[in-house]
Amino acid sequence: MSKRPASPERGPRPPKVTIVDHDFVVNVEDGETIYQHCVLLAGQCKDLGSGEEDFVSVNTTDTFGRHSSQSWPTVAGKWKALAMLSPGPNTVQLKLHHQGAVSPVYEFKLVYQPLLQLPPLHLAIMVAKDSPLLIDCPPAKFGGISSAHSTLESAIAKFRMAAYMWQAQTAEDFRLKGLGRRAFRLDEEWGIDTTSRAGYQSDPSGRQVTSAIPKVHIIRSEHTVEELRDAQVAQQNPHGRRRDDLHSFFKAALRSHGSPFSSAERPVVAGLILDSHYSIEQNLILAHAALGAHDPNGVSLGVFGSHLTYSWPRFLEEIPACLLDRTPTGDTVGNDNGECGTMREACWVGQGAFLHEVGHAFSADHTTGIMARGYSRHWGRNFLASEETGNEAVWDLQDALKFRDFDHFLLPGDDALTHEECSASAEITCEMSAEDDEPVLQIRCKAGIAQIDFNGKVVYQAELFANTALAANKTELENVSYTGGHTFSIKFSDLEKQFDRAKDLSISLLGLNGKKRVVDQTWKMLAELPFVRVPGTMIVLRKTSVKADDNDDGEFWRWAMLLQRKGADGKLVRCSAIDLRVGAIMDGAVVHYADGSHVNCGPVSLHGRPHTFGGHASEKRDIPADARIAKVEINASGWGTLGGIRMTLDDGSSWGELNGHATETLAPQDDERIVGLYGRSQLGSGFAIEFGIITAKKDVGELPEVVYDMPELQNTEGGVNADASMNDGSDNGSDKEEEEEE
Fold first, then answer.
1. Which domain of life is it from (predicted)?
2. Which helix or strand (DSSP H or E) is residue 487 part of?
3. pLDDT tens-digit series, residues 287-335
C-alpha cells in the first residue's frame, strides 16, 4: 500500500508518515473506491500482545477538512475498526498506541462513491397511535432515571448505527467470499449527525454537527399500545393464536404511510417495533416478532422488537464498549431466547437477529451463519479483533449469491445475469451417454456453477472463489468433464470406483444465481431413472411404467423388487406367485417367493404399522418355474390412482381386475425378458399411482449376484418418501413469512 506524507500543520512537528505494510492493514488498498458509507478496516501488528492499554486510533479527513477520530482495541496482535467516509476522497490515518507509546502514522486514501441510482434498504420504526415513545431500558443503563437510552431519539440513533454496522459487515463478508466489497446502501437525508459522539451530544442551542445520515421513517400504526402488546400476537407466546399479526400490522402501517412504501416501488424495509415490552408478570416479551418475508412484487419486510435496543451503541465511539460489556441485563428486561443475560449478549442477539429478518426480506432462507443464529455466538467478531478463530455471524454463500443479483447490491462493471440465468434451476440428473450407452451423472446450472459438494467436501468451485478462504479443503475427483463452468459430468462407473455403493452419497449443487439442489441419497436417485446399471458390468436393466393421470404431486413410497431374491440362507429363490390387489381402484400387489417370503409392490409400512392391502376383487396366481410374465395391462384412469391391473404369462393365462379397460400395456421388447417390478404408492393411503416392469436382455442369462444387493432394486423401509431426499433450495419462500426459531 503506497504512503502519502501527512500535511504540515502549524505548531509541533507532525509525526512521520510510514509506508503502510500490508500486514498492518490487510483488507483495503490505497486509493480504493468504496461504495458504502461505513467501511470495516482490519489488520495486524506484529509482536504486539493484548495489553489493555493498547489500541488503534482511526482518523478520517474528507476533502473539506472535516475530521473524525475513534479508538479501537487490539487483541493478540490484531485489530479491527469502523470508519465513516464522506463522498469523494478520504484520508485515513492510523496510529498504534502500545504501552503508552505512539507509532508512526499509517496513511492511505479511500474514495467513497455513493451509488445513488440504486435502491436503498429503508429503515422504519412503527409506533402505536398512543405510544409513550419509550423503549425498555434496565437499571444498569440508568433506566427510570435517565432517558439517554430509552427515548425515541436514542432508538433512532441506535437503529442508524446498527444499520451501518450491518452494511459494513455485509460488504466485508462479500469481499472475503470473492464477490467484491458490496452491500446495500441506506436511504440518507441531511440532518444532525448522530453517528458521532460530537453530533449526538451537541448542544441543541449551539452549532449542530450535520451530515448525510440514514433516514428513519416513523410509521404510525392504527393499533393502540394495548393491541400491539396483546399476548395473542406475541410471537414468542407458544399459545398465541395470531403470532404473525405484528408483521401484518407493520405492513398495513407502511401502506398507510405511502411512498416510499407502495408496492409499486417494491421496497425492502427493516422495521423496528418501538412499543415492545417485557412483561414480568407474564414472563413474555410483548409487541415483539422476529419475522421476515420477501415479496418480489410488493413490500419486502423484516421486523424486530425494540426490547434489546437499549444495549446497542448510539454512535461510533460506543461500539467497542457495547460489544464488550458483560454487565448483567437484570430482571426488568426480557432475556430473549435465554441468550441475553449480559449487555454484550443483548447487543449481539438484537442486532444480529434483526439482520436475520432483513435477510429474509432479501429472500434468504434458513441456511447457515446469520440465517442459523450464528450471530448469538460470534456477532462481535465482525467488528472487534478476537483471539478466537472462526466466525458464524456471516452470510451463507447461497444467500450472498442471491443478494448479488438484487439491484441493491450491484457494483459498477457487474456483468448482470440475464432473466433466463437468474431463474435457471440447479439440476442433478442422470442420463444415458450417447457414445457408449452408459449412465452419466449430470450436474448443471445455466447461470453457472458456484460450488459442488460430495458428502460435504468441495469437488468443484468457480474461479471467482480461487483466492478466498472458501477454496480451502477442496477434493479432486477423477475422470470429470466440465463444460464452460455450467455443466459437470461423470460416468456412474467412475463414480462407483470413488464412492462406496453401500453408503449414502450426498451431492449439493449451488448455482451462481443462488439456486441450490441437494440429493441426499444419490444411489437411490437411480430408482427414478429409466434404466439401472449393474455395478462392475456393462449390463443395463431397462424400466418402463404407467402413471396415474394427474397425480405427480405429493410424497410417495418408491418401491422395486426382482422376481428372484436372496433367501435367508443367501441362495436365490424364485417368484412363486403374484397377488394383484384391486378393489374399486388398484391397491397394489404382493410378490410371493418359493421360500415362503413375500414383498409388497407398495409400502412396507404405513403410519408405523406393517402395511397390508385391501381389495375385494383381488386375485392371486401361482407362477410355474418355467413361466415368464409376457405383459402387464394397466387401467390408469382411477381417482388420481391406477384403476386396475391384469397380468398375462407366456403360456397365455391371465389374472387380475382392470375395473374397465386397459389404457396402457407394458411388455418387454422381443430381445428382453421381465426380471422385476417397480413403482410408486401414495404415502398416506398406500394406493398405487405408478406400476412398471424392469427388463433385461435375454442374452444376458443369469443376472450377476451383485444385482440382488442393490438398494434401488429392493423394497425396504429405506424406500420411504424418496422424494424428500431431493431438496431443491431454489424456492426461497418469497410469498410466505418465515418465523425466527425462538
1. Eukaryota
2. strand 487-491
3. 999 999 999 999 999 999 999 999 999 999 999 999 999 999 999 999 9
How much is the pLDDT for 275? Answer: 98
Nearest to 633 by CA among 693, 682, 679: 693
Phi, psi angles (nearest 5°) of residue 407: -60, -30
> What is the set of domains in the chain, with CATH numbers?
17-112 (2.60.40.1220), 120-410 (no CATH), 422-520 (2.60.40), 538-726 (2.100.10.30)
Whether residue 154 is predicted with pLDDT greater than 60 in this model: the reply is yes
SS (H, E, C) 57-76: EEEEEECCCCEEEEEEEEEC
Helices 397-404, 152-176: crossing angle, 10 deg rounding: 100
Residues 6+ apart with CB under 8 A from 265: 259
Neighbours of 560 (CB within 10 A): 23
Distance of CA 194 to the CA centre of its chain: 34
Cell reading at 318: 460506543
Q: 455: phi > 0 → left, psi -120 to 50 → alpha, else beta; which?
A: left
Residue 606: the pLDDT is 87
* Tens-digit pLDDT profile for residues 541-598: 989 999 887 655 567 898 999 999 999 899 999 999 999 999 999 999 999 999 999 9
Q: Give residue 248's pLDDT.
A: 96
List the grid coordinates of 583: 378393489
**Which DSSP letter does residue 611 get?**
-
**Among candidates 221, 212, 232, which has minimal Cα distance to 255?**
221
Per DSSP bridges, beta strands 32-34 and 105-112 are: parallel
The reply to whether omega before 73 is within 30° of 0 (cis) is: no
Spatial contact of 636 and 600, defined as CB atoms under 8 Å apart: no
Band of the pLDDT at 415, cuts 50, 70, 90? confident
Q: Give the whole-angstrom CA distance, residue 122 versus residue 565.
A: 65
Gap between the Cα atoms of 587 and 613, Å rounded: 6
Distance, C-alpha 302 to centroid of its chain = 16
